[in-house]
Design goal:
Helices cover 25% and strands 46% of the residues. By secondary structure, the protein is α+β, with helices and mostly antiparallel strands.
Length: 154
């Protein structure tokens, strides 16, 4: 059973919420340290991330490249807008499949909750069609596989 909760709001928003048995500090590091990102943000089994550039500072760039022996690879680029250590990350990202998708504005927060942390990721897409195309990729399953892997690291 998935621990991830995915909701749509309005025509352009996707909100992903998940509880982790970890501190906000540990989750924040896992989202900003390239060596940790390469270990968990892989989606379904069989994928790797041979390139991970994550310059986690306002104006800093990100580039994540995924590879699989049986499928065509793809990559993501983006820029960080705001970071509040251990609490909040705001960035813009676009997938290259190989053509770039429209920008996805993402705000991720980490809030202590009991003995763990609730992570909330609010994505803002430019329009309903872009959101529908993104959801049709099966992103929910890939995200949960990644987050389950993350739980084993932190």
């Amino acid at each position: 059973m998935s621990k991830l909760k995915l909701e749509t709001q309005g025509d352009r928003y996707v909100v992903v919420t998940r509880q982790f048995a970890a501190t906000p500090e540990a989750l924040y590091r896992a989202h900003t340290d390239p060596k940790l990102i390469q270990q968990w943000m892989l989606g379904p089994d069989g994928w790797t991330m041979p390139v991970c550039i994550c310059d986690a500072r306002p104006g800093g760039k990100m580039r994540f490249e995924w590879a699989s022996s049986g499928q065509a690879g793809f990559f993501l680029t983006g820029e960080f807008i705001e970071l509040t250590p251990y609490r909040r990350i705001v960035h813009v990202e676009r997938m290259h499949l190989p053509d770039p998708t429209p920008d996805n504005h993402v705000e991720t927060t980490f809030e202590a909750n009991g003995s763990g942390t609730v992570m909330t990721m609010r994505m803002t897409l430019p329009n309903a069609a872009t959101r529908a195309a993104m959801l049709a990729t099966g992103m929910e399953g890939g995200m949960e596989a990644s987050f389950a892997r993350l739980e084993t690291l932190i």
